[in-house]
Write a structure and sequence with these properties.
By secondary structure, the protein is of the alpha+beta class. Helix content is 33%, strand content 35%. An eight-stranded antiparallel beta barrel has the order 2-3-4-5-6-7-8-9. α2 (8-37) runs antiparallel to α4 (181-204).
Length: 210
């Protein structure tokens, strides 16, 4: 029985099991790293325009910046626009590392016709213009630096192109960018090489005559 456990076949099987276990551990460490960087995921999007003619529009999604990186990519917004109030209210939840923030902003409706809704807002250094297209159900925005504020607020001088997107797409894209693929592949290659070298040594080892 003792001789069986010392056989080449058993040693090779044990080496393969160790290699597979090490690969699983490497994958778990990779997943843990991604989970730490992307702890939650905004989900879905909705552009409700069925009550457009009655003066109501509801929007849900995640704002993305097409020409730059977002400071808070893990974000979800719920926007309600009412023509009678001539305003749109946005409730927004944002995650920054281990901090969850909730904000609410109000915007003025500047245009509401059969096809397009435009609402605007203003901050200290920038102006926002948002457009909702009833026909295509596309929601976009532009952040522009206020005229005369370029030198006072240089960090906001760049014009940003915004788009209300599906939060799940943002979540999976962040996971893809965060996952240490190169390190994981390198670790798996090292494990396979180690296993191959060890198996080769086992095969080439001479078994003493009994």
């Amino acid at each position: 029985m003792a001789q069986f456990w010392k056989s080449k076949a058993v040693k090779i099987i044990w080496t393969v099991c160790l290699a597979l276990f090490a690969i699983v551990i490497a994958g778990m460490l990779s997943d843990a790293h991604v989970k730490q960087k992307v702890p939650v995921g905004p989900y879905g999007s909705s552009v409700f325009v069925e009550l457009w003619s009655q003066g109501y529009v509801g929007l849900t999604g995640t704002w993305v910046i097409d020409n730059d990186k977002s400071a808070f990519p893990l974000q979800v917004s719920r926007i309600v626009c009412r023509l009678n109030d001539k305003s749109c209210t946005e409730s927004r939840a944002e995650v920054s590392e281990d901090t969850l923030m909730v904000n609410q902003d109000s915007y003025e409706i500047n245009r509401w016709d059969e096809h397009v809704l435009i609402y605007t807002g203003s901050a200290q250094c920038v102006d926002y213009v948002y457009t909702v297209n009833r026909d295509t159900k596309q929601v976009s925005g532009i952040r522009k630096s206020k005229v005369g504020k370029e030198k006072e607020c240089p960090v906001h001088s760049k014009e940003l192109l915004l788009r209300l997107a599906d939060g799940s797409d943002v979540y999976w894209e962040m996971q893809r960018e965060t996952r240490p693929v190169a390190a994981l592949v390198a670790a798996c290659i090292a494990i396979v090489l180690w296993a191959g070298f060890r198996i080769r040594r086992i095969i080439n080892t001479k078994v003493p005559n009994l």
